[in-house]
Amino acid sequence: MDVLFHVKDLVLLAAEGGEAASHAAGVPQKIVEVGYLWLIPFFPLLGFAINAAFGHLIQRRFGKKYVSYIAVGAMALAFLVAVAAWIQMIGLPASERYLVNFLWNLFTAGDVQANLSFALDPLSMMMVLIITFVGSLIHIYSIGYMADDPAYWRFFCYLNLFVFSMLLLVMGDNLVLMFFGWEGVGLCSYLLIGFWYEDIEKAKAAVKAFVTNRVGDFGFVLGMFLLFWALGGSWVQKKNVVAKHERVWSQVDPNYKPVAQTGTFYERDPALSPQSSHRGIRIGPSLTFREIRDQLSSEETGMKERLLGMNFFGIPLLILAGILLFVGATAKSAQIPLYVWLPDAMAGPTPVSALIHAATMVTAGVYMVARLNFLFALSPAVMTVIAMTGAITAMFAASIGFVQNDIKKVLAYSTVSQLGFMFIGVGVGAFWAGAYHLLTHAFFKACLFLGSGSVILGCHHEQDMRKMGGLKRFMPLTEKTYLYACIAISGFPIANAFFSKDEILWRAFDSGHNLLDPSLGKLIWFIGWLTACGTSFYMWRSYYMTFTGEYRGAAGHRPSHGALATHSVGAAHAGTFNHDVLMSATVFDDDPHPDSGGVDAHAKGTAKHPDHPDHKAEGGHGHGGVPHESPGTMTYVLVTLAAGCAATIVLGFWAPLGNLLGIDALKVPLLEHWLEPTMAPTLELVEKRSAQSGHAWEWALIFASVGVAFLGWFIARSFYKDARSHAPAKLAAMFPRLHRVVYNKYYVDEFYQATVLRAVSLLSRAFATFDAKVIDGAVNAVAVVARFICNISGAADTYLVDGAVNLVAEGVIQTGHRLRRIQTGRIQTYLYAAVAGVLVLIGIHYLIR
Amino acid sequence: MAETSERPSRYIETLVGAVLLIITAGFILWMIARTVLPNLVPVAQEGANLAKPSDLIFYVMAGLAIVSAAGVAFSRNIIYSALALLGALLGAGGLYVFLNADYVAISQLLIYVGGVLVLILFAVMLTSKISDQKHSNPSVGTLPGLVLLVALLGVMGYVATRSPWLTASSPFDAPQTSFTIGSLFLREYLLPFEVSSLVLLATLIGAVVIARKEIKE
Amino acid sequence: MGAPGLPHYLIVGVVLFALGTYTVITRTNAVGILMGVELILNAANVNFVAFQRFNPSPLLTGQVFALFVIVLAAAEAAVALAIVLAIYMNMKSIDVSHASSLKD
Fold it and tell me: In whole angstroms, what is the distance from residue A301 CA to residue B177 CA?
């Protein structure tokens, strides 16, 4: 009872943040300095470091479980510190819920100050809790999933590194640190997607993810720079400006006429420096979120007006910066046009798909938009772009998901679609709704992915749903959690996603002048509504194909992926099974697995096996063709996540009910309250611009959503339950071309290959040729010239220098020869010489005298 | 002086000898003319102050000496050279007489001509092959030699004529040479006299020693 | 011209000397060289006696010296010719260009 009492206190305490926060928009954010926030990313980093340096040795000497202890322990510690921070934050009044831990200054260059400083405000607190909690669960899941992989230690090493980078991203106090984490998660995504790098297709998928992310990072960085510059000065049209260097030249050279230029120049405002402040609010160029937020949300500083009126070479600055930043979000969160990496990323192990590509990394874009809500909200054009992109992506991805047969691909496109929903949410100004959908998505999507991993493992690495079926019997726990997650994603009110998705759709409908045109909101609602129907359809399709009917899978087959080679040789098996021996005796099924999941984890799960011929007594597993339930580490995680799907209903329950019944506590749901301090600058603005449709509309839309969810379920059920109906096949036969186009993902990848990739590879080949021919040619030419000069020099040395020396020597020798002839040996010669000499002397004597 | 060049040497030799002969003759004639012709006018007046016969004889003696010396120098035949040497010595002796050195003149004749020249002739006879008379006295390097000859003549002639030699202002008092020389040898020049006797002794013994062995073989 | 004065005798001496030097230098016959030496000595004697005559000294220096020169010339001629004979006995030739075995 005491616990409940305290929980209620906590709830009320958290809820009271609302009123104070709503007046906090113009006040500089008060912060609370703490000293322990660095521990949250530090523990995963430590886990990464230990596993990177010693993981291999530990695994070899002590066994795999110690590797996992280190990794999961690090995650658990991080979660505990996060909870401690949360508790502290709850205890603070709403306007002060901003914990800052300043470590040191990374670098200062002019106006740019990049600090290693962690900050937790309500939004990032929510993210940190999601990351550490769901991350820990996935780490535990991986213990079972990756049990037979020899590179076990490397997996956990990368997982910890990923969590560290993600925590940097969300806890970063400034754009630099966030970008650091942004890049880090991109790197870890590459490392983890390409975990089984020996398979070239997987390696290519990893590279695709990384390169696509890089394209987005380019936009992000440009947006960051633009924002920074804009805060420090502006671009102005000037006529006949003489640049300073021209004036200097004219001082030096009197004949030089300085050239006057007309055009757009960047003018640095000297009033805006790192030291300037306006009544306690720091203004000027800054990279710290808090400072930018304070500047732009306060009316007194005048920065908002500045930015609103600023143009960058004719383009309004806010639009440009917003779109550039959004490009980064597009790549990271897999929206059109940079979503192409996410389906291919299913090449990585399923825990990776769950963690990175469902729960955390892909939400970084949404987080960034929510964090910079004050910036995006200033520009309806940018918000329109975001919302429309989200909407179109949602519909587009959902349509692809209709016809995919690989269960992981279905989930991947589902992720893209749901991310579209999140962007709709933050695009129309419902930032808290987007964040709430982020949270619910983390739970149900992770549950779905991990469930699919369990299914894949149970079907012996079969990922094609056409070869599954009837798994309800073999994997009851997996089936139940998967069922509940499907209920969630379809938007039935008994699970959490209904509340978040509905809030988003309602706010989209009601967005009014938050977008460029009020009717756009209605359009977006319509697209989202249809997409919800589609979502429901394809998710139930996957459920019915997988779990109902008869098992269509093959008798048994050999998994064909790169890890097998090392697997057979000397893998450290937790269990005792003769996988390789028995496999050679089985029928080889050559069904292609483009992106197979993990390795058999037969350590513990055989207890749920009904009747297996090759059952070994200790719990080892003979290789039969019958699917089986997964071990406890995996199923308990599934259950936890499903429970989370249910539990998080509380966070968003339920504004429409509150409005209907007049219950104030429900009018603003818990999460909305919680996030109010972060979203404070925009609340009034968004509210003012909204269409103010009545609550009747809200209920109408709710019923429409639920109805369309039922419709999707019904169609899926009738087409796919028990695989009895021939309708899907008939439909596919009726529209073969359409089917083919959608099945091939609208040929987007092929389009990119033909255009962008071909152009880039041509360019790189051109550069390579240039380098080989021209630059190397120049270098070789220099070498040739040098050799030529050396030859000349050598010749000069041989012939001139040596020649001169030899000439001197020869001359001396010849002179010696000639002079030697004086020595005739005859006295008469000597007498001649003597007399001649005497004559000369006499002559000289007489001449001188 | 490197190679022997007999033919050019012979022509040159003849030429130079002829030239010198002509020069000497001309010199003499010119001297005679110079002394005679300008003095023809005052001859009548001066009488005995014209060229004395002694002057003429001087020139003859000098000419003899010089021509003979030329013969020694340029003759191809060694016998001719030896005989020319005789003439030169005689000429020198004659000059000594003119210089009031009668004892020296006689000594010259006795010792030089009678002793040295005879000795030289003996040596010539003993060592030359009489059969090749014509080419028994070749010379080498005549051209450089002639150059030196001319140079010597020129330089030393210049020195001899242009130098302001001290000459006695008082009239010459011809001494009694034999008596004086004799007494001088035993008084002032006793040491050189005795030493020269030793030299002669040494020469005697030395010559015998040097020439003795070979003859014995 | 006048009576022969000092320069005349000196000229004679010079000519004798020059010719004697020429003889010494050019002749290859050893005896020929000796003759040249004799000419040189005679030239010197003429010089001495001439100077004695035209710059007389009570000690008759010139004449005495000339006498000694004659004596020594004789001695020297004797020895020289002994050597020439010795060489002739040895080499069967008195060509000085053949007597160059000390040269190299």
Answer: 148
Does residue A298 carry a pLDDT above 90? Answer: no
Residue A583 pLDDT level (bands cut at 50, 70, 90): very low
Q: CA A33, CA A444: separation in Å to the nearest integer?
A: 35
Q: Which DSSP letter does residue B50 get? A: S
User: What digits encode the pLDDT tens for the residues B36-71?
Assistant: 766 665 555 555 555 677 888 899 999 999 999 999
pLDDT-based confidence at residue A8 (cuts at 50, 70, 90): low
Q: What is the pLDDT of residue A591?
A: 38
Report the chain B residue with the minimal C-alpha distance to residue C3: B55
Taking the CA of residue C9 as centre, how many other CA atoms within 13 Å lie in the half-sphere pointing to its CB?
26
Decide: B165 and C54 in contact? Cβ < 8 Å. yes
**Which phi and psi (to 5°) does residue A104 adopt?**
-160, 170
ipTM score of the complex? 0.90
Question: How far is Cα A303 from Cα A300, in angstroms, rounded to an integer?
Answer: 8
Query: How many angstroms separate the CA of residue C26 from the nearest CA in chain A?
Result: 7
Residue A787 has pLDDT above 60, yes or no: yes
Question: What's the pLDDT tens digit per position in A468-512?
Answer: 888 888 888 899 999 999 999 999 988 889 999 999 999 999 888
Interchain proximity B148–A846, CB inside 8 Å: no
Chain segment A395-410, per-residue pLDDT in tens:
999 999 888 889 999 9
Q: Select the more confidently predicted residue: A50 or A611.
A: A50
Tens digits of residue pLDDT in A437-448: 999 999 999 999
DSSP lists the bridge partners of residue A311 as A316
User: How confident is the model over A732-748, as a mean pLDDT?
Assistant: 85
Name which residue leads in pLDDT, A159 or A514. A159
Give the residue-averaged pLDDT of A610-637. Answer: 58
3-state secondary structure of B120: helix
Per-position DSSP letters for A331-359, written without gaps between them: HHTT-TTS-THHHHGGGS-HHHHHIIIII
User: Which residues does chain A have within 8 Å of residue B152's beta carbon, measured at their own beta carbons?
Assistant: 835, 839
What's the rounded Cα separation, in Å, for the pair A478 and A495?
Answer: 17
For residue B1, the chain A residues in CB contact (below 8 A) are 824, 826, 828-829, 832
Shortest Cα distance from C102 to chain B (angstroms)?
Answer: 17
Phi and psi at residue C7, to the nearest 5°:
-55, -35
**CB-neighbour burial class of residue B161 (10 A; exposed 0-12, middle 13-18, buried 19+):** middle
Segment of A233-237, A358-362, A809-813 carrying the highest mean pLDDT: A809-813
Please give the helix or strand (H or E) that residue A233 lies within, else none: strand A233-242
CB A370 within 8 A of CB A434: yes
pTM for this structure?
Answer: 0.64
Out of A823, A825, A828, name the one closest to residue C25 (CB).
Answer: A828
Chains touching C (3+ CB pairs < 8 Å): A, B
The answer to whether the Cβ–Cβ distance between C36 and B72 falls below 8 Å is: yes
Q: Are A63 and A55 in contact (CB under 8 A)?
A: no
Residues paired with residue A32 on neighbouring β-strands, in sequence order: A99
Whether C102 and A825 lie within 8 Å, measured CB to CB: yes
Q: Taking Cα atoms as reference points, which of A217, A171, A202 lies closest to residue A371?
A: A171
For an interface test with A, the pick among C24, C25, C96, C103 (most A C-beta atoms closer than 10 Å) comes out as C25
- Tell me the sheet residues that pair with A260: A242
Q: Which phi-psi region, left, alpha or beta, contains residue A470 (left: φ > 0; alpha: ψ -120 to 50)?
A: left
Q: How close, in Å, is residue C33 to chain A by CA atoms?
A: 9
Question: For residue A113, which phi and psi values (nearest 5 degrees)?
Answer: -125, 115
- Measured CA to CA, the distance from residue A614 to residue A604 in angstroms comes to 15
**What's the distance, Cα to Cα, between the start and end of chain A in Å?**
146
Residue A823 sits at the chain B interface (C-beta within 8 Å) = no
Containing H/E element for A265?
strand A260-268
